[in-house]
Design goal:
Structural class: alpha/beta
Largest sheet: 8 strands, mixed
Radius of gyration: 28 Å
Order of helices and strands: EHEEEHEHEHEHHEEHHEEHHEEEHEHEE
Distance between the termini: 49 Å
Strand order of the largest sheet: 10-11-12-13-14-15-17-16
Shape: elongated
Oligomer: single chain
Helix content: 25-40%
Bound molecules: ligand JD8
Amino acid sequence: MRIDVVTIFPDYLAPLGLSLPGKAQDKGLLDVHVHDLRQWTHDRHRTVDDTPYGGGAGMVMKPEPWGEALDEVAGDGATLVVPTPSGAPFTQAVATELAGRQHLVIACGRYEGIDQRVMDDAAARMEVRELSIGDYVLNGGEVAALAIIEAVVRLLPGFMGNTESLSEESHADGLLEYPVYTKPADWRGHAVPEVLLSGDHARIAEWRHQQSVWRTAERRPDLAHPASAVDVAGVAGTLSLAQPSDAGELLTLQRACWWQEQQANPGVEIPALGEDLADVQVWMRDWTTLVLRVGGRLVGLARGRREGDLWDIGRIAVAPDLQGRGLGRVLLRAIEDAAPPEVTGFVLFTGAASARNIRMYKKAGYRLRGAEAGVPGAVRLTKRRGSR
Ligand code: JD8
């Protein structure tokens, strides 16, 4: 692979000569060239910036030096990578994609950024990827270029000694990495988890997977519960993790659905009907909550939280006009799957007279366990995890 980097601070890219990219170059796997943008200026002050059209703070990088630089450095087959905070997320998937290219040209901007016409002009003859390495603001593209190059080069075939470890990494399977330990087995009174000393590779693999899933749910719920498409009985929608902004629609949905429950269970006190918006906002912080949207309308809800080793599932709700199509089953399965790995079983309760609900739960493998303590008129159902 050939990588050309264009910047007004070439020394910033000096680290490319070290460590990883350095070795790749020694191995002939990588050919890196760093260029100073100012060599494509023609005035005494080697000017690369000017004031922004439309006014505003700061300066913008002029198109002419960039145009000449890319004419010289980026042939048609090249992929132009432009780090920018307004770019598409740079992810492991994008890194894998770029690792398959033959020639990357990375344009490092400064000031308020590069005149947009530079990217528009280049897009006429080459692939252009405006990418962001994260939701924070840097002062220029150089640091991002270093991160992108490291993430791409280490994926080059023949570069990483044991490719096996590549597949185990964070983000490789959408999960964060499990915690790692090395000798001594006890350090400052901190012991290494016993399972890792057991030699039982199956248990070790299971423990590591559980740790990864738990960490991902805790630290990256966006990864843990990626939005998923639902298509049941002609209803196409999206299932995703609830956001704080969903509170109002959740309140509306639960009032609509539990009004029906109240009709089916007269005299039974139904908590959902006693809640206001603030109550919903409070419980959203304590429960893992999934919402189903169809055509942008929030039409389904399910929530779950730990209750000891059990996953307490609640508020399975489907908009009245969409009931009876199996969406409840979809929500139930999804909230079960959202349970952390150490959960051994599921528990939920519903109105004793809610025959349709009870039928659905039984079909899903739940067993009636009698009256729900503390909730008059409600019955408890449980299911062991893994027993579909
Ligand atoms: C390129 C100029 C600075 C950005 C005014 C501060 C990437 N994840 C990221 N954060 N920041 C960048 C980035 C910042 C850059 C340039 C990348 C070129 N700046 C500008 C707009 C606001 N200053 C980045 N990838």
